[in-house]
Amino acid sequence: MKSHVIVGRGAAASKTALLLAEDGERVRMISRTGGGPDHPLVDRVAADATDTDRLTELTEGADTLFTTAAPPYHRWPEQFPVLSASLLGAARRAGAAYVMLGNLYAYGPVSGPIRPDFPLAATGPKGRARARVWEEAAASGVKVTEVRAAQFYGAGAFSVFSLMVQRQVLEGRLALVPQELDVPHSYSAIGDTARTLVAASRNEQAYGRAWHAPTSTLSVRELAGRLADLAGAPEPRMEELTERDLTLLAFTEPFWAEMHEVLTKPGRPFVIDYSETEKILGVSATPVDDVLGEVLNR
Q1: Maximum Cα–Cα distance for the chain, whole Å?
Q2: DSSP states of 118-179 as a string?
Q3: Cis amide linkage into residue 119, ω under 30° from 0
Q4: Are 147 and 99 in contact (CB under 8 A)?
Q5: What letter does residue 31 receive in the DSSP assignment?
Q6: Is there a contact between 213 and 285 (Cβ–Cβ < 8 Å)?
Q7: Which residue has the higher pLDDT, 263 or 69?
Q8: Which residues, including other chains, have CB under 8 Å from residue 59's CB and lie 6 or more apart?
Q9: pLDDT band at 36 (very low <50, low <70, confident <90, very high)
């Protein structure tokens, strides 16, 4: 029986664990709190992934080490290198294949459609932190691949849409969004991201390079409208947060100061090309209404 270790306990980690377990494969989930889904083939362990010796011990004998973990948003430049070095070291010492969940910040501001072979040209601290994680892993000699997802949506998602739009739309309240309301933007469903992680782990062609999780592309206003229609909620009321708004909010919470780096340029669509994922890994995007339906039925 195959076995795997997943570092992280969020929606992507939990969905990945369940996909593997439902295929009869053993999974050990590692997080500081020991969280994760309840399944007889999923073992949940509370541990600090920056403790390389402990992580290596927990990874011994596993076929694959997955990571979906990330430090607090405003601590990425300081803490990502530490976490990444521990994960990479544990994969090397345990002899496990290494599958990373990343995002799109490392590309920096580019014109789409963005392909996974684009250079990692970010200049901001979060984008460079993400780029460094991949560059060091790719040069390490470890059998490694990375799945890069766009902004998450769907059941359990933790993102700008889920936090600042979804609840407000369902409750008929004004949504204030740090994103242009009518410019096309790609979104990755949690389930599609997990399926891509699993598919990449099982395909020898996947290793040594990065892949894009499937996406659906529509404006945030359109996505909010689809959610409202499905829920029978009022037409969404939305306003864009300006850079000045974000600057003022940064005095109350460090998260807001970090948004400036990742805002797309005015009027520029943010579109992802995931055609290789569909062709080679066999994973396609779930229809938007099906993803939103999972949110409403949760």
Answers
A1: 55
A2: S-----SHHHHHHHHHHHHHHTSSS-EEEEE--EEESTT--SHHIIIIIHHHHTT-EEEESS
A3: no
A4: yes
A5: E
A6: no
A7: 69
A8: 5, 65, 90, 91, 93, 94, 96
A9: very high
Backbone phi and psi for residue 72, each to the nearest 5 degrees, phi listed first:
-55, 145
For residue 267, pLDDT over 80 is answered with no
pLDDT tens figures, 206-231: 999 999 999 999 999 999 999 999 99
The mean pLDDT of the chain is 93
pLDDT exceeds cutoff 80 at 260: no
What is the CATH architecture of 3-150+190-213? 3-Layer(aba) Sandwich (3.40)
Predicted confidence band of residue 265 (pLDDT cuts 50, 70, 90): low
Provide the 8-state DSSP code for 223.
Answer: H
Q: What are phi and psi of 180, to 5 degrees?
A: -65, 135
> Is residue 298 packed enough to be buried (19+ CB in 10 Å), middle (13-18) or exposed (0-12)?
exposed
Residue 144 bridge partners (DSSP)? 98
Q: Please determine, for residue 113, whether its predicted confidence score (pLDDT) is greater than 70.
A: yes
Across the chain, the runs of DSSP E, i.e. the strands, are 3-7, 26-31, 42-46, 64-67, 97-102, 144-148, 151-153, 174-177, 185-189, 210-212, 216-218, 237-240
State yes or no: pLDDT of 187 exceeds 90: yes
Q: How many whole angstroms separate alpha carbon 278 and alpha carbon 196?
A: 9
CA dihedral 7, 271, 298, 173 (to 10 degrees): 120
Residue partners of 212: CB distance under 8 A and separation at least 6: 114, 115, 116, 147, 148, 149, 150, 272, 273, 274, 276, 277
All structural domains of the chain with their residue ranges? 3-150+190-213
Closest CA to 236 of 161, 164, 181, 173: 173
Rounded-to-integer distance, Cα 179 and Cα 224, Å: 13
